[in-house]
Amino acid sequence: MRLANLAGRAVLLQDGRALDVERASDGRFGPDPMTPWADWAAFTEWAAGVDYANAEGYDESDLGAPIPFPRQVFAIGLNYKDHADEAEMAYPENIVVFTKYQSSLAGPTAEVKVPGETLDWEAELVVVVGEQIHDVDEDAAQAAIAGYSVGQDFSERTVQRRPPAPQFSLGKSFPAFGPFGPAVVTPNEIEDPANLSITCVIEGPTGLAQSNGAGAWTAQDGNTKDMIFSSARILSDLSKVVTLYPGDIVFTGTPAGVGMPQGIALQPGDVVTTTIEGLGALRNPMV
């Protein structure tokens, strides 16, 4: 199942078409994209037998954040060995956690206003929680995963690093700094979430400059198998402190290739395409 938000309505995507949830369920589930998370188990049971005959074509520009108003948004830092290496930092023994504020969430084609001269990119796997959990082990955490999505953790590094103490959450929460989608993809649709290619390609002025005029520059080319903490470990560790709720989302960290260590930043005219194998892609213009 691929659950998405099309022009503010919950839909299921299949083969380039969208099925409206409210209409297909005869009103059992409402049109609000948050409705499925009120009873995820019942929703998935219904969706498993749904008929896509009435699905229709759609415009990708109408896709919004699949979960526009999660209760909680978590993000994990330094979760890929090669990214820790490029940051010249030791591999963490415990998860490094911050948040991206809810207002930073956006859809897969959202425009991003460049707020300064140090705008960076971070391609990330997003994990979505499907049931309420607290203080659970990794097996229970794995069972609580509703699905996965593609995320981009845009970061304004000057704000993030300004004194007297780092402002991670503020530097990463300008409008549209947390695009994700195009859908929440359930685990049964993915062969191995722990072995997915993840890339970030930049076109425009930055892409031209870094590709010697070729036009598109692959800034990041990684794989989720290189994560230090697995998705289940992350949810389990989070649950030792907080209660996780259905629809909560977790940005799980980024592989090597971000701009800051290279002295490279995004600028207006750039287009950032973030792709994860089997999950889809985001394509976000910088304005």
TrEMBL record:
Q: Does the keyword Acetylation apply?
A: no
Q: Keywords of this protein's UniProt record, alphabetized?
A: Hydrolase, Metal-binding
Q: Which GO terms describe its biological process?
A: small molecule metabolic process
Q: Which Pfam families match?
A: FAA_hydrolase
Instruction: Describe the location of the Fumarylacetoacetase-like C-terminal domain by residue ranges.
Output: 73-286
List GO molecular-function terms, semicolon-separated: hydrolase activity; metal ion binding
State the SUPFAM superfamilies in the record: FAH
Entry similarity comment:
Belongs to the FAH family.
The protein, known as: Fumarylacetoacetate hydrolase family protein
